[in-house]
Amino acid sequence: MTEPRESKSIAHHVDAERLWRRHMELAQHGATGNGGVNRQALSDEEVTARRVLVGWGEAIGLVASNDAAGNLFLRLEGTAPDLAPVLIGSHIDSQPTGGKFDGAFGVLAALESVEAMVAAGARPRRSVDVVAWMNEEGSRFAPGMMGSAAFTCARKLADILSVHDAVGVGVATEIAKVLAAEPDLPGRPLGFPVAAFVEAHIEQGPILEAEGRTIGVVTGIQGKRTFRVTVTGEENHAGTSPRSARRDALVSAVAVVQALQQAMWDDADVVRFTIGRFDVTPNAPSVVPARVVFSIDLRHPDTDTLRDLGDRIPALCAAAAGRCAVEVRELLHDPPLTFPDAVRDRIRAAATDLGIPWMDIPSGAGHDARYLHYHCPTGMIFIPCLNGLSHHEAESATKDDIAAGARVLAETAFGLANQE
């Protein structure tokens, strides 16, 4: 591994203290009492966080804009602005009990990268856009990655706008609120040409930390299928209805879950099967439950295995539901993917030139880079997070690792922006 380059590099102008301070400041928008962040998609907290990002960008000469899907862009104009730009960024929405770094690191590292270019007096040939994609997490509006899916035309904007949250508030209403809060920002079209996209992110797993590596060069993303299962029974009195007369949706739902868990079990521990949401109606102590709705999140790195396991789910649910009716609706089917060698090679070269230890690593989690992969050459950069913990208020990363990730991103983005 080579020694770090001298101070004329773009990476030298990454300011670790400024980058850390911005993480802490952004985390105040939606801060929880346990040190985490609740900044869900299109919420008032995200509106104020976007305003902060725009202010930081404009202070260094970036031009802010947005699009009809609520994606936010901050542009450093290149010397050949008519060329397709390079996009770098991630998202700033969070889980209800999320941390300070998931998503936010990718956006703030992108902002720091272009600020380093400005500080170095190195204007790239292509423009570089810092992007914050709308609703990556999918915690308020499902499924996630709505902004990147709309941008790349993987999903129709009209379908996205029709989605509502648990209390009936629609995406269309909330995007209108966000755009009304940014009246001075020009609009941009969905799906404009992009030369490349690079997303920096915490690993959300323990491998980099265990291996003592600072940078993960992400090889690709495992496949994912999500489902919504509705089990319908009948309300009845808890004290008077005999077992023989009951159509207990909760009892049937538990049987369905057990059947699914057994069917998805693999000794190699490669399958990722999760039921993360379980809603019971009427959810009253003395009433036999009439309806249960639960989520299924199924992931696997092999295309055929993911397809076969997912295709078994409807029949498994029907067989285990007993006297209740069951409906299975698939929400998402994203196959596994591999990022192109050209982008991965640039990330490896940047880390090597800077003397930062790296390794190749697959992504078990989904990211906006999934949809950009089908729109332009795409890559991802991981940094370690403490104990691999994420989607948790205790999520943590070190100041040095954050700065190292930003340095590799800055060099990678600058190189991509100067290519033919």
Automatic annotation (TrEMBL):
Zn(2+) 2 binds at D102, E137, H391. Pfam families: M20_dimer (PF07687), Peptidase_M20 (PF01546). Keywords: Hydrolase, Metal-binding, Zinc. Residues 220-320 form the Peptidase M20 dimerisation domain. The keyword Hydrolase applies. It comes from the Bacteria. GO terms for molecular function: hydrolase activity, acting on carbon-nitrogen (but not peptide) bonds, in linear amidines; metal ion binding. Binds 2 Zn(2+) ions per subunit. Its cofactor is Zn(2+). Signal peptide: none annotated. Zn(2+) 1 binds at H91, D102, H201. Belongs to the peptidase M20 family. NCBIfam families: hydantase. PANTHER family: ALLANTOATE AMIDOHYDROLASE (PTHR32494:SF5), ALLANTOATE DEIMINASE-RELATED (PTHR32494). This is Zn-dependent hydrolase. The lineage of its organism: Bacteria, Pseudomonadati, Pseudomonadota, Alphaproteobacteria, Hyphomicrobiales.
